[in-house]
Amino acid sequence: VCSSDLIYYPQDSFGIGIGGEYIFASVERRALDDVREGAGASLSTPPIPSYFLHVDAHWSPIYGKFSIRGRYIVHWDGYASLGFGIVGGLGGAPPASATFAVGHRFIVNHWATIRFEFRNHVFVGRREVLGQMRSDLENYMMFQVGVGFFLPPFLGGGGDA
Predict the structure, then answer these.
(1) CA 109 – CA 160 distance, rounded (Å)
(2) Cα angle vertex 140, ends 51, 134, to 5°?
(3) Each residue's pLDDT tens digit, 117-135
(4) What is the value of pTM for the model shown?
(5) Do 74 and 65 form a contact (C-beta atoms < 8 A)?
(6) How far is the C-alpha of 80 from the C-alpha of 106, rounded, in Å?
């Protein structure tokens, strides 16, 4: 999965952003198919999305700092985001989705961060099962690790104070 976000923070604890995730490959589902066959369930393999696009509101209510060996002070914040978007690559019109995330951002200097995030996308998927179209609620959960940059770099947060 490749992910990218662009977030504007008009205040320290609130931001508005756009983002997306692109899925390069999917996990094979052989074990799941074996369980379904053994339980007598009808086999239906849902199409795998290839991308998610979303608009989010970010809220960062927790802020702190800690010292590493008494020499370096690392600033961090915990955040949550809630948003909506679309899911692509399923064939037909892209369905609407809801997304939420929680994460931590560690500010390593005045212009860069390291981010750990758990994100969930929820949408109604449609597929054909035994000749009939069916809908179901689909959930895609992702754990992401990434880097972030403050633009312009000289106005970024963090520091060694």
Answers:
(1) 8
(2) 90
(3) 999 999 988 776 777 777 7
(4) 0.76
(5) yes
(6) 15
